[in-house]
Specification:
The complex is a heterodimer.
Chain A lengths: L1 H27 L4 H28 L7 H4 L10 H33 L2 H34 L3
Helix pairs in contact in A: 1-2, 1-4, 2-5, 4-5
Chain B lengths: L1 E2 L20 E6 L10 E6 L8 E7 L2 E7 L12 H6 L14 E4 L2 E4 L2 H18 L5 E5 L5 H15 L4 E3 L1 H4 L1 H11 L10 H4 L2 E5 L3 H4 L1 H11 L6 E5 L5 H8 L3 E3 L6 H14 L5 H7 E2 L1 H8 L4 H8 L3 H13 L3 E5 L1 H4 L4 H14 L9 E4 L6 H7 L14 H11 L15 H10 L4 E5 L3 H4 L3 H9 L4 E6 L11 E4 L8 E4 L4 E5 L12 H12 L15 H11 L12 H4 L5 E2 L41 H7 L5 E2 L18 E6 L15 H6 L4 E4 L1 H6 L7 E6 L2 E9 L6 E5 L43 E9 L34 E6 L10 H4 L2
Parallel strand pairs in B: 8-9, 8-16, 10-11, 10-14, 11-12, 13-22, 14-15, 16-17, 17-18, 23-27, 24-26
Antiparallel strand pairs in B: 1-29, 2-5, 2-29, 3-4, 4-5, 6-7, 6-18, 19-20, 20-21, 23-28, 24-27, 25-26, 25-28
Helix pairs in contact in B: 2-22, 3-22, 3-23, 5-16, 10-13, 10-14, 10-16, 13-14, 19-21
The chains are: A mainly alpha, B alpha/beta.
Iron/sulfur cluster binds next to helix 1 and helix 8 of chain B.
Protein name (chain A): Molybdopterin oxidoreductase
Chain lengths: 153, 838
């Protein structure tokens, strides 16, 4: 099952990228108190997913990808400034979280095929969490957009 | 004659469960005024807390000289508390009232005329609208205006200008109440009624120090707990309040969870109901959604686990749950201890869950009162001056927005509904960066009441934003404004307001306002006229000229909504009592309690919100909501406990929480100008437990410094009945001081503002700031020559009763004489279930 192992590796890797990026955005926009606290909270969720995945990686092994740059998305090394910067950062997080979500969807399909209950549980519960991360990002983007686009100094 | 500073609640009128609360008429007249010389009594309701007690204002020689409770009013049956008695009218004759507009010239505020002041606002407003559009404008209002004024402001903001940046200080006091209702029941609206007090077996007070916030309501409860067949009290509060003592007296429970851990405790109580089978299965199946998710959310919260998190005895958790589980009818009340703390909405929703699990809603005695702090907060929520859409309409539902556009005859795109309304903390952030350049503040004092006050002052005094303040006095906030407008207050204008259990009162004008002061309604209308706001037919957008016309316009747009005022008019409100909405053809005399039919306003096309993720605040979409088919069923929603945002550390080992005292209201604008009240609580203090005080060498009355990562205050210490590890500070005290004769003249006035220490952080759903979970340290500065200035009557009483004479506080007393007359024949109260049965 080399490809499933690849995807498990991708889940692990992209959750880590997402967690790191959430933290970068939290620190960079600490003045927006809700962004600061919520991004740190959501980073914690991604950490939890990796912890839950760890024993499964032991079982399958974490295969690295042949062309990692084609599969792995780069995280946010640093945050941008100001209201427009926040908007862009939230959008980037949304892209990263979408990659995570589709990865879990794919893994869940594989897990069903293999009747691997442990993996299916991790994939399903992580997927549900990721959906909530995406919902928050969407909500926050919508709230921030008008002011940032029209009047931000 | 009684001194109601010393005797806060007056004499008891105890009565048996299921019987009507007796009537007693409380009255206070200024010294030297006798009843026979009063020229007239003018109908109103008290504006000094959310209870909304019916009063008549005594007028003599064109001045307000006292008040008398209205015996026939369903809210108070004639009673008044100390704030209402001593605080209602004194401020009005105060020599420092604002009587003329002020504008800033060369850095100073100077008197001017209305023409000039309003001209400046309109010039700035028009040029900003041209250059930057509507999002350059923000409005921050109050919980103390009248319904007609909020509605006028809402129409100006939403249909005149078109800005989503509108909120009120209700965000600081009751936003969580509204948010919790919307999450559970689909729309705002108090389910319960005060008459539940007469019929319940137990009252649970969650973070609600009712004896100091709504004294007349507490008197109503005492008349049950001191009568035959008393209700038991369960108290959730980190301080040993009078509620806690009543819990001990009635065989209830006092739970004192660590500050910031309310949700863990609530999950524990929910867990106990579920494992003990204290659930009305049929009712839950028929009328709720979400039981399975709730069950799995609370599964880990055994009493022992809860005890670890909250620092309470696991047996107490079991006992409290048993009282809830085995009572026929429980009344729950909730206030700032939940609303202003960590995970506010989730914890308040958990109270609803307990009632829903037991089917205890919509019948006498089985009720929920998510309380409000301020007297007219409810109207702000209803009218949409807080950013919501008027009439509990859903900003995310295009049909609801269209209804408003039709009623106002404006393009639907004018009404900002593309995103949730901007909450107060975000409005101030936009003002901080100059993204909002005109901020209009009415009847509130954010320089004292908002968290992290040093930052708020910087925002208000900076050049990046033009600040308009309209108020009765030159408050700490008005001092920083660019234009200050003098407002008429209660008794000087006519309008309606609605108390915490939906009861609408008309408050009539009793006297003329001083100088050139104008009602807030007239000020808003003047602005609208000068701005030339018109509808699509070219008519003035706000066509009404009087408060009554504004009221009728408001009532018309509530048709078909849960908050239905269509059956109300000024004439009808001139009757013997206030009337609880909905009032319409179906309910011509109003409605004592909601959801008697167990049908909740959750239908997708009808609800006020599709709901939120309680942990992140992410919004549920219309499709997701529709897929759940709520169709009138209530939501059971749960969330896991997460630790507070700021945990104690080595440098800041204690938890700081702010709160209230019975003798002051809000930032003391009115109560501080009543000598009777102000002398009872003249200056700030902090409360610290005996153990924490000992560890720091602090004795009663010592000057201490309380410091958090954001700021510090230096005040006197009361070694009191707070739990170990917690520090309590009253939030009322800014730098304003009354004259020495009224108990002013303290040298700590510039370093006692409790909000210097609080954090800029808010609940993800209600966006209510968290005032109650900062970390802090307390250090002793020096001895003082007496005890702390804290009252001895309420929760701030000293822990130790036999202090050395020098440190022993004088008992709090000294209010002017008032009269109380218990009526031998209790009036008939419309809708009162105790009288319907007989
Ligand atoms: S309980 Fe509230 S409304 Fe009633 S008199 Fe006291 S302050 Fe006024």
């Amino acid at each position: 099952m080399p490809h499933l192992a690849t995807y498990i590796g991708l889940a692990d890797h992209s959750e880590q990228t997402l967690a790191d990026s959430f933290r970068t955005v939290a620190e960079g926009h600490a003045r927006a108190a809700d962004v600061f606290h919520t991004c740190r909270l959501l980073a914690g969720w991604s950490d939890e997913h990796r912890t839950a995945l760890a024993p499964i990686i032991e079982r399958y092994g974490e295969a690295d990808v042949d062309e990692p740059e084609r599969l792995h998305a780069a995280g946010l090394a640093e945050s941008r400034d100001g209201d427009i910067g926040l908007l862009r950062d939230l959008q980037d997080l949304h892209v990263l979280a979408t990659l995570v979500q589709t990865t879990w969807t794919v893994i869940a399909q594989g897990a069903q095929g293999l009747r691997d209950h442990e993996l299916l549980d991790v994939a399903t519960s992580s997927n549900a969490h990721t959906a909530r991360q995406l919902t928050w990002l969407n909500t926050r983007l919508k709230a921030a957009a008008p002011q940032a686009l029209i009047v931000a100094p | 004659m009684s001194d109601r500073i010393a005797d806060i609640y007056g004499a008891r009128t105890p009565h048996t469960k299921g019987t009507v609360w007796p009537a007693r008429v409380d009255q206070f007249l200024d010294p030297g005024v006798d009843e026979g010389s009063v020229d007239s009594w003018v109908q109103s309701a008290c504006l000094l807390c959310s209870n909304g007690c019916g009063v008549d204002i005594a007028v003599k020689d064109g001045r307000m000289v006292g008040v008398r409770g209205r015996a026939t009013d369903v809210v108070n049956h004639g009673r008044l508390g100390p704030k209402g008695l001593y605080g209602s009218t004194r401020w009005a004759n105060s020599s420092d009232r604002l009587t003329r507009p002020l504008v800033r010239e060369g850095g100073r505020l100077v008197e001017t005329d209305w023409e000039t002041a309003m001209g400046r606002i309109v010039d700035r407003s028009k040029s900003l609208l041209d250059a930057k559009g509507p999002l350059s404008h923000g409005f921050y209002t109050s919980g103390q205006l009248f319904l007609e004024e909020y509605y006028a402001l809402a129409v100006i903001g939403k249909a005149g200008i078109g800005t989503p940046h509108m909120d009120g200080n209700t965000r600081l006091c009751t936003a969580t109440s509204a948010a919790a209702f919307k999450e559970s029941f689909g729309a705002d609206g108090q389910p319960g009624s005060y008459t539940d007090i007469e019929h319940c077996d137990a009252v649970f007070l969650y973070g609600h120090n009712m004896p100091e916030t709504q004294t007349v309501l507490w008197a109503r409860i005492l008349d049950r707990t001191r009568g035959d067949d008393p209700a038991r009290i369960v108290c959730v509060d980190p301080r040993r309040t009078l509620v806690a003592m009543e819990a001990e007296r009635t065989g209830g429970v006092h739970l004192a969870p660590r500050v910031g851990t309310n949700l863990a405790l609530m999950n524990g109580l929910t867990h106990e109901l579920l494992v003990n089978g204290w659930v009305d299965q049929d009712w839950v199946a028929a009328h709720t959604l979400g039981l399975d998710d709730l069950r799995s959310t609370v599964e880990p919260y055994t009493p022992e686990h809860v005890a670890d998190i909250c620092g309470v005895d696991p047996e107490d958790v079991r006992r409290a749950a048993r009282i809830f589980g085995e009572s026929e009818a429980v009344l729950s009340t909730v206030l700032q201890g939940f609303y202003q703390s960590h995970q506010a909405t989730a914890a308040s929703v958990a109270v609803h869950n307990l009632h829903l699990l037991r089917g205890m809603i919509g019948r006498p005695g089985a009720g929920i009162l998510q309380m409000n702090g301020q007297p007219t907060a409810q109207n702000n929520r209803e009218c949409g001056a807080d950013g919501d859409l008027p009439g509990f309409r859903n900003w995310d539902n295009p049909h609801h927005v269209q209804q408003l556009a039709d009623a106002w005859d404006v393009d639907v795109m004018t009404i900002p509904h593309w995103a949730p309304p901007t909450h107060a903390m975000q409005i101030f952030s936009y003002a901080e960066t100059g993204s909002i350049e005109l901020l209009w503040i009415s009847a509130t004092n954010p320089a004292v009441s908002m968290p992290e006050s040093a930052r708020i002052r910087r925002i208000l005094e900076g050049d990046q934003c033009f600040v308009v303040v309209q108020d009765l006095f030159l408050t700490e906030t008005a001092e920083l404004a660019d234009v200050v407008l003098p407002a008429a207050g209660w008794g000087e204008k006519t309008g309606c307001f609605t108390n915490v259990n939906r009861t609408v009162h008309l408050s009539e004008k009793a006297v003329d306002p001083p100088g050139e002061a104008k009602s807030d309604l007239d000020i808003f209308l003047m602005y609208a006229d000068r701005m030339g706001f018109t509808n699509r037919s070219g008519e003035p957008l706000l066509g009404w000229r009087t408060a009554e016309e504004a009221f009728d316009a408001w009532a018309a747009i509530t048709a078909g909504r849960p908050v239905d005022y269509t059956g109300l008019s000024y004439d009808k409100l001139r009757g013997p009592t206030g009337i609880p909405w909905p009032v319409n053809k179906e309910h011509p005399d109003g409605t004592d309690r909601l959801y008697a039919d167990a049908v909740f306003p959750t239908d997708t096309d009808y609800c006020e919100t599709y709901g939120h993720d309680l942990i992140t605040g992410g919004t549920v979409t219309e499709q997701e909501h529709r897929a759940m088919r709520p169709a009138g069923r209530a939501f059971l929603k749960g969330a896991p406990y997460t630790p507070p945002h700021e945990e104690p550390s080595d440098d800041f080992p204690l938890r700081y929480t702010t709160g209230r005292t019975v003798y002051q209201f809000h930032t003391r604008t009115k109560t501080g100008r009543s000598a009777d009240l102000n002398r009872a609580a003249p200056d700030a203090w902090v409360e610290i437990s005996p153990t924490d005080a000992d560890a720091r060498g602090i004795a009663e009355g010592d000057w201490v410094r309380v410091k958090s990562p954001r700021g510090a205050i230096e005040v006197r210490a009361r070694v009191g009945d707070v739990m170990d590890g917690a520090v309590f500070a009253p939030f009322h005290y800014g730098h304003w001081e009354p004259a020495a004769a009224a108990g002013g003249g303290h040298d700590d006035a510039n370093h006692r503002l409790a909000n210097e220490l609080t954090m800029t952080v808010w609940d993800p759903v209600s966006k209510q700031p968290t005032f109650k979970t900062a970390a802090c340290q307390v250090t002793r500065l020096r001895a003082s020559d007496g005890p702390a200035p804290a009252p001895t009557t309420g929760a701030s009483a000293p822990a130790e009763r036999d202090l050395a004479p020098r440190r022993r506080p004088r008992p709090t007393q000294g209010g002017g004489p008032t009269t109380s007359t218990t009526l031998t024949e209790t009036p008939t109260y419309p809708l009162d279930p105790a009288q319907e049965d007989s």
